[in-house]
Amino acid sequence: MLAFAELLAGLGLLFVGLKFMSAHLQQAMGRRVRALLKAATRSRLIGFVCGAMTGAIAQSSNAVTLIAANLVRGGVLTTREAIPVVAGANVGTSALVFIAAIDTRIAVLYLVGLVGCSYQFKLDRKPVQREWMGVLLGLALLFLGLELIREAPTTIALKDAAALLSGIGPFLGFGIGLGLALVTQSSSTATVLCVAAVQAEMIGLHDSFFVVLGANFGSGLATLLSAGGLHGTGKQLCFVQIIVRGVGCLVVFLAWAAAAAAGLSGGVTFSSISSGGTSFAISIIFLLLQLSGGLAAIAFLGTTEALARRFSPPNREDHVSRPHFITDDALGHVSTALDLAARETDRLIRHLPDLLPDLDQSGADDAKVRAIQWRGAAAIARATDVFLVELIDRQPVREDLDIALALQHQQGLIEALQDTLKSFADAIDSFPAPPPLAFNLCESLRAIVLELADTRGGSAAEFDLLIALTAERSEILERIRRTLSTAALGTAEEARTLLRALSFFERAVWLVHRLAMTLRPAANEANRDLAGDHLTRDEADAD
Amino acid sequence: MQIEREATGSDLVLKVSGRLDTPNAKPFEQSLLAAVAETSGRITVDLAGVDYVSSSGLRALLVAGKAMRAAKRELALRALQPQIREVFDISGFSTLFEIT
């Protein structure tokens, strides 16, 4: 019983350690990860190396693929440029598998001692140092978890466990690896578990070969499953992962089969190549899977891209998710960059009415199209926010810094407004036929947001009108709330949805009010100059 | 939608009936702006015959209200049906117009 608890604790520590290490590594290196990914556009080799480094940093090819996919969706990278990054990221995750293959008992003791003393002597005062302490602690927990997993089976019925797992066969082994990768969302974690099982002599190299093969392919599927929010071009990299993993499995399996056909045992062959025991042989197999699949994808870049494009062709979301003005090239020239960020902000405001249902023309309104518009607008808002953070990091002169901070504040309000309008629209859409109050709330909010879209870039007097229009109205809304609580409505569910819609309405109006105050020329004269060339609503419709 | 005009000196009353929806919003806005240009006094929009107002209808009134403000004159509304009054209260438009 104690041994099972040890095994369970080992697994728990392994997962906690991995999460801890990955989260702190991303915090410590997050900005460098983005810089590394952007540097990937120079050549295939640089892309591959950058991918390997980011994979080693994030310890998750899944995470790197999704970050790269979002950059593709945002127009920072193309799918073609991102393929070597994804291929390299898989290789980077091999580092963890190799570390797991070595005897880590002494390392755990040193790591725990180092981290504990650092905390005691307050060496974690600076944020970066604190993150690195977190990385080391995560690594220590991971090693400790591995040790527990390795040791636990020796105290339980080792022979029984070994008998259960021995001769599991290629198909079952592949299935176990695939399942482990789907559950852990990581081929390296599944392989590390396999290494621990081999070290505990629960499983042989022949069977673990197929487990690792399954884990490799399962990780590609896991990436696709976790990319629920991505569509069109953004999803292409998930299919690239499956292609890379699938090709890797095929190449390594053929090599294994060729060795068998030549009268050699695949296991013996890999053991002799690694010359470091079974654990190292598994690490080598894992690395070969990543290298063969990755290098094949890079060598046949055009074919890989074409296949990914076929599985996930570009769609409407690609267009609406792409910033129209900001580009990383502009970051070198602060005033141009600020001008572009102001135009992007302006465009986001112009498209805010698109996020609301048009109940007056219900036949022309489509909730699915609105959902795409919202995802696209949210992606652009995030990209603009990142752009502004990078601009501020370059320490511009005071005047430019003030404008950048004002734009950043506006971005925050716009993002909050986008989300609130989406929640409000969802509440309204949930009615099969909106009751009169839902109609009145929706058309009122639409009129207010349309006024915001038309007022941007307007005079102080026009903004004053908008500020007056969106002023405090808690009295009327409170009266409606009371009525909803007491009136005989269709159903209780209807009343609850109306109350929810009312809350979102109130928040949206407050956000428009705050946004109008920050956009009002007298409040932000410099910003007004930047956002000078506003498009008319008709031009916006053509956009 | 129908609009009847009643002039009293320099003041004008526009009696509107029907729906202030998207198809009618543009003609309604043009009628209001024409009235702003033609008269020099107060304009009152009688909404007793209106039983439906959408965001487009609200915006048409707002455009006319802005034009009147620019001319330092007032646009008033009267005889709103209860459900129409609720739209004006919720949207905050009742704070921008004199409503009788």
UniProtKB/TrEMBL annotation, chain A:
What InterPro entries would the database entry show? Answer: Na/Pi_transpt (IPR003841)
Give the top-rank taxon of the lineage listed in the UniProt record for this protein.
Bacteria
Residue ranges annotated as coiled coil are: none
Q: Which GO terms describe its cellular component?
A: plasma membrane
Entry annotated with the keyword ATP-binding: no
GO MF annotations, alphabetized: sodium:phosphate symporter activity
Gene Ontology BP, a term: sodium-dependent phosphate transport
Where do the TM regions start and end? 46-72, 84-112, 132-149, 161-183, 209-230, 242-268, 280-301
Q: What name appears for this protein in its UniProt entry?
A: Phosphate:Na+ symporter
Q: What NCBIfam families is this protein classified in?
A: Na_Pi_symport
Location in or out of the cell: Cell membrane
An example of a Pfam family matching this protein is Na_Pi_cotrans
Q: Which organism is it from?
A: Aquabacter spiritensis
Q: Which UniProt keywords apply?
A: Cell membrane, Membrane, Transmembrane, Transmembrane helix
Q: How does it sit in the membrane?
A: Multi-pass membrane protein
From TrEMBL, chain B:
Family annotation (PROSITE patterns): STAS
InterPro entries, sorted: Anti-sigma_ant (IPR003658), STAS_dom (IPR002645), STAS_dom_sf (IPR036513)
Classify the source by domain of life: Bacteria
Q: Name one GO molecular function term.
A: anti-sigma factor antagonist activity
User: What sequence ranges are listed for the domain STAS?
Assistant: 1-100
Give the family, as the similarity comment puts it: Belongs to the anti-sigma-factor antagonist family.
Q: Which PANTHER family does the record match to this protein?
A: ANTI-SIGMA FACTOR ANTAGONIST TM_1081-RELATED, ANTI-SIGMA FACTOR ANTAGONIST TM_1081-RELATED-RELATED
What name appears for this protein in its UniProt entry?
Answer: Anti-sigma factor antagonist
